[in-house]
Amino acid sequence: MGTLVGVLPGIGPTGTIAILLPTTFVLPPVAGIIMLAGIYYGAMYGGSTTSILVNIPGEAASVVTCLDGYQMAIKGRAGPALGISALGSFIGGTIALVPLMFLVHPLAEVAVKFGPPEFFAIMCMGLSLVTYLVRGSFLKAVIMAVLGLFLGSVGTDTISGRLRFTLGIAGLSDGIGLVPMVMGLFGVSEVLTNIEKTTKIEILKAKIKHFFPTLNDWKRSIGAIIRGTFLGFGLGVLPGGGSIISSFVSYTIEKKLSKHPEEFGFGAIEGVAGPETANNAATAGGFVPLLALGLPPNVIMALLLGALLVHGVTPGPMFISNHPDIFWGLVASMFLGNAMLLILNLPVIPLWVKLLKVPYQILFPLIILFCLIGSYSINNSIFDIITMLAFGVIGYVLRKYKYEEAPLVLAFILGPMMEQAFRQSLIMSDGSLFIFFTRPISAVAISLSIAIFISTGVAFVRKPRDKIT
Amino acid sequence: MKEAYDKISLSNKVSSNLGINIWHKKESDVNNQNLNLIRRKECKIMEKKAICLLSIISVIFIGIASVVLGAGEEFPTKLIELYCPFGAGGGTSMGARVVAGAASEILGRPVVVVNKPGASGTIAAEYVARAKPDGYTLLLFNSASNGVVPAVRKVSYKREDFELYGQYAFIPMVLIVKDDAPWKSFEEFIAYAKKHPGELKAATSGVATSSHLGIELINRVAGVKIVHLPFKSGPEVTAAILGGHAHLGLEPIPAQKGVIEAGKFRVLAQASEKRLEEFPDVPTFIEKGYPELKWCPWHGIAGPKGVPEKISGKLKDAFSIAFQHKEVVEMLKKLGFTPNYRSADDFTKFVREDEEKFSKIAKEANIRLE
């Protein structure tokens, strides 16, 4: 029954769970937890709908979905995009439950082995993949990544606690908000660009061929879905890892492996299927540290943890043996929740697609309105609205000059995390850089990223073309 | 009066909790309606118009009603906002919701928790300090945004900007190491730390948090040198100690309870004044000869200075009942707090003393963030 609430698309997970939390006080623990988990699941899917239809990532993890999902919608293929993301989410979410069921404890043991040096090494790999995100100029992508790194360093430095680049503005002391930023960069700037050209409306109206993925779509996506599942789950398990990175990494892998890399960024279905699957599998993976160790990997999980506490259940290593009923109830609810998501979402796809027929002059004020409300409600902060609008304008200018937003966002997310992990590692090793090479996991990851970096560099030097695919 | 309130049944309280939620939903989660709005477009235009008209009418009615009612009746005549300086879902926010639920029952109007996180809680604190002193804007007054942070960073408010209505809880802190650590007792640990200055790394949940200042306090009074390894949150600290990336932590119990109960963490000492029920065998720092190491973050309620005495008196009374209510105490315990009631005057005095302590450590350890 909780899943029903959660499945309503577009209800932000954190807010919903926070609101419904006290209602679960009255319910028996199992029902309460299941309800919250259901909401979480449902909401994770909801984010992709807006990404595909109107290019607004409802949450950070959906940024990647915008890249190709929205392009598909423009080409009249919103239906297959929505369909594949629903099916991919279902498959990813379901398969990921199997290791969750049987390997919670061993997985958690491995997960805590990932300390700051390992995280740093993995993020190096992530950042070296940035070039694959690009569809246009390589140089411009690097400029955007550097800009992203800079923007990411705004705010309080975790290690020293000092404020950087805040210009004395209190609202900046926690850094620039990710969600207002991506809403501005993607959603608002899209609207601004579209107001200019009236022809766009015609394209959207043009032809909506299929509501559901075709056989060919399936052939192209299935590999992406399977890879996304494992990737997402693996990264989701790491405490502090999570869905954002997994969706970026999945996208780059699909692009690298694809037979049609040139289609990426212009509506490649694999580019929707992989990241969406990874995103949902990471959600399931996130339950591993929560259930095995009591470590919530994100705010929403922290809320679930709170719910458990209120019911007198202490999450931790003893959780599964002390409360098997809750554990299995949760697992069952995740299976059910995934199935419900699919059942409830597939029939409404034609409805969503029809929405695109709404004339743009009516649609765009609404889009702006959602963005405004959405960015305000995260922290009840006007400052977030200003941030979003500012990035809307920045995004518009960037678009005009054909700079892409995705490398900026990736660098913005990874930059601060990398810096923190790097400096933490150095504190751990009393200043020795060898810590990255003496620990096996980080040694492998660092070597790999150096290899990627060199190979891209060689390719760039040998064939100094503008585009590396 | 108190006995009467004690009789409030659980179901009553829960339903009031639900009431708050509905309020809260209306206020802060409007964004989530964005898709509903899209869907609404699908509805017939007539229907939409009707809905619009209805909602406008109802808003006008509510407005008129509140003005009319407000004229004659006593405080409170409308809902009261309790600003929580930290995000929804954190322990602080959940404690606030428990207290707010009980206070709504007593005051007869909903007390709504509004999460306004950011800048270590200083944004909400500043907001309430500057709010109209009419008793309708309250702050979850806590040792982070109103104790530690002002000690290390320039903030635009001071304690004198607030009027305190009382304290409801402490957050107990413990010194933890991994289960396979070589130190079985606090003495062994200190002896090792003394012999190996700079070798031990303490994971903390960030610079200038109570766990960081606590570690600096240990360094000071015990004459050791433990290196501070900052992370961003409590769970990250747990993972770092579990994975062997840091040696120890001085952490609030709620977040670490499960791991401690499973025997993966060894508790060497506790920073409370007395031994806690949960850890009857673990000594306090005070017992070990460090009376300065009494280190307990606190939570209470405050409002802006200048609220008319009649109203502030009413709030003080209401919160003193709420804070001591049996079910509130029970619920706070479940959440990992140590319920501890202090009256408005006692709390004010206590906060003043703690403030001095914070500034002293921050100054001596040279923790200054600008």
End-to-end separation of chain B = 48 Å
H and E string of chain A? HHHHHHHHHEEHHHHHHHHHHHHHH
CATH class of the largest domain in chain B: Alpha Beta
The strand order across the widest sheet of chain B is 2-1-3-10-4-11
- How many domains comprise the coordinates of chain A? 1
Number of helices of chain B: 14
How would you sum up the major sheet of chain B?
6 strands, mixed
Question: Tell me about the biggest sheet of chain A?
Answer: 2 strands, antiparallel
Question: Please, how many domains of chain B?
Answer: 2
> Helix tally of chain A?
23
Secondary structure: number of strands of chain B:
11
State the end-to-end distance of chain A.
Answer: 46 Å
CATH overall fold name of the largest domain in chain B: D-Maltodextrin-Binding Protein, domain 2
What's the assembly state of these chains? heterodimer
Helix content range of the residues of chain B, please?
Answer: 40-55%
CATH superfamily membership of the largest domain in chain B: Bordetella uptake gene, domain 1
User: Which percent bin holds the helix content of chain A?
Assistant: over 70%
Strand content of chain B: 15-25%
Q: Trace the largest sheet of chain A across and list its strands.
A: 1-2
Q: Unreliable segments of chain A (pLDDT under 50, ≥5 consecutive)? A: 1-11, 465-469
The outline of chain A comes out as globular
Give a structural overview.
- The complex is a heterodimer of chains A (469) and B (370).
- Chain A is 73% helix and 1% strand.
- Chain A has a two-stranded antiparallel sheet.
- The termini of chain A are far apart.
- By secondary structure, chain B is an alpha/beta fold.
- In chain B, α9 links the parallel β6 and β7.
- The longest helix of chain B has 28 residues.
- The N terminus of chain B is likely disordered.
- The chains are: A mainly alpha (469), B alpha/beta (370).
- At the A-B interface, α2, α3, α4, α15 and α18 of A face α2, α3, α5, α6 and β7 of B.
